[in-house]
Predict the structure.
Amino acid sequence: MILDQFKLEGKVALVTGASRGLGRALALALAQAGADLFVTDISDSSELVRTVRGLGRRCERTAADLADPSVPPKIPQACVGTLGRLDIVVNNAGIIRRAPLLEFTEKDWDDVLAVNLKSIFLLSQAAARIMVKQGEGGRIINIASLLSFQGGILVPSYTAAKSGVAGLTRALANELAPWHITVNAIAPGYMATDNTKALREDPVRSKAILDRIPAGRWGMPEDLQGVVVFLASPAASYVTGSVITVDGGWMAR
């Protein structure tokens, strides 16, 4: 049956930045579809672990600072060491820094690029090596942004990183296809998360954003759950190198 192609029983998924916001919703969706989870975040993810285990799935966690380049390559191996395999990676962790261009610091540039782009490359490379060795294919799903397509304002390092995520997604898809490893990205629209708190609290910017969204509302983390399950599942075996927007129609406007 077609619905069976969306089931993830027997799969192990690694989700970064999973303790709250988009990452938490993505992790829960994969668990609800049947996957066991290995989750990581710089903050405490114990509540998520309890919730996932309550669904009857295995779930292990580790604290990780992805800004340290020695850390991302170790995470996929830690997943295999505790859960036995690795089938799905969701590179969700990210940070943002806002300031006018003429005042933007080199540190804010470096910090964002380290977490939002470099760590994705390092973690995906390590995960792909494991998937190739397992010989059963795999799924890598990156979290891009509307700023993968647009310039934005006040966020040059975030825009550069997310534009890089889109390009890296396509590059990895090309090289990993022979091993049946698909690589795709989800580009969320304006979502109600901590990253957009300043925008939502600014009445002028918030109105300008909402006026452009055909759906007429900010997105919620749960709006990404269907697409992440699809991309992680056998149903998406012929989808690779794509960046899928989930934006309430923003890019169509």
User: Anything to note?
Assistant: The chain has one domain: 2-246. The chain has a mean pLDDT of 97.
